[in-house]
Amino acid sequence: MRDMRIIAVLLLLPLLLVGCVAQPEKAQVKTENQSYPITVVDDFNFSVTIENKPERIVSLAPSNTENLFAIGVGDKVVAVTDFCNYPPEVKNITKIGGFTTIDIEKVVSLNPDLVVASEGNGQQNVETLKNLGLTVVAFSPKSIDDIKKNVLLLGRITGEEENASKLVNFIDEKIASSRNEFERKPKVVHILWHEPIWVSGSGTFIDEIISIVGGENVFSDLKGWKAVSKEDIISKNPDIVLVSSGSGMGGEGNATYEFVVSELDIDAVKEGRVYIIDADLISRPSYRIVYAAENISDILRQFSAEER
């Protein structure tokens, strides 16, 4: 069971590929200022042609679901994964399995004209869906800029470019308001799991956010998400500990937080500077990552104010 929980956590984390948008083919159909068919290149480097404005969309990742609803096409989403829990409306939408445990037959039976996939689904599943004749666009953002690119691409292929642009502006505004510059950068560690201890290194959303809000990730010398020992964290002695919790952690509640406060002999624990961050916000590459940035920014501002 422990191994399954670890796998579930890691599958929620974005991997490293960058999406781009190709020039559209010659327009043949006009729909609400958007011309179809259009051709794009997704994060798997597949060239994908969308023949008409999508009316039946299947989302294979929580981040995709959140972004689809945010740009105004939630009413077109006919199926989502078991992990999709936001916005609340998804509770009543058909479920098609987990990240790698997609019910392929069920997806096909829903007759979608667009499937929005992610790296967490696995390339084999994506290719299987494509080989069955479905139109699949796959995302795998590694940075906030990549999230914005994916939002704009979603807007383009769904005919909601204006809403997508507004959402990107919202992301920019929230990130700008979260930026800090401190005389001394607070030392921060983000722990997303405790059996073993997994931390966020460089090239992750969390590392980027810590930098944006004026902190120093004590494990920025590591690449991606890595397992470390208690001694590694103790030797770094961070000022602030961020701990993932919530449904994104496989329903374990605050188990990782309890581990940190009971097992790590560091100043942050002794002085009450261990903070729980909703895993759904901090680990999903959707527009809602800005709320994690705001939360962490407030934590660092409070710490720096107390230091003065």
Give me the secondary-structure topology.
Layout: H1 2-11, E1 29-31, E2 34-36, E3 38-41, E4 47-50, E5 57-59, H2 62-70, E6 77-80, E7 94-95, H3 104-109, E8 114-118, H4 123-131, E9 136-139, H5 144-158, H6 161-178, E10 187-194, E11 197-200, H7 205-212, E12 216-217, E13 225-228, H8 230-236, E14 240-245, H9 255-263, H10 267-270, E15 274-278, H11 279-283, H12 289-307
Helix pairs in contact: 5-6, 6-12, 7-12
How would you describe this structure to a colleague?
The chain has 308 residues and is an alpha/beta fold. The protein folds into two domains: 15-176, Nitrogenase molybdenum iron protein domain (Rossmann fold, 3-Layer(aba) Sandwich); 180-307, Nitrogenase molybdenum iron protein domain (Rossmann fold), CATH 3.40.50. It has helices at 2-11, 62-70, 104-109, 123-131, 144-158, 161-178, 205-212, 230-236, 255-263, 267-270, 279-283, 289-307, and strands at 29-31, 34-36, 38-41, 47-50, 57-59, 77-80, 94-95, 114-118, 136-139, 187-194, 197-200, 216-217, 225-228, 240-245, 274-278. The protein is elongated, with a radius of gyration of 20 Å. The N and C termini lie far apart (46 Å). The relative contact order is 0.14. Mean pLDDT is 88; it is low at 1-32 and 247-252.
Précis, in short:
The chain is an alpha/beta fold and 308 residues long. It has helices at residues 2-11, 62-70, 104-109, 123-131, 144-158, 161-178, 205-212, 230-236, 255-263, 267-270, 279-283, 289-307; strands at residues 29-31, 34-36, 38-41, 47-50, 57-59, 77-80, 94-95, 114-118, 136-139, 187-194, 197-200, 216-217, 225-228, 240-245, 274-278. The strands form four sheets. Strands 10, 11, 12, 13, 14 and 15 form a six-stranded mixed β-sheet that branches.
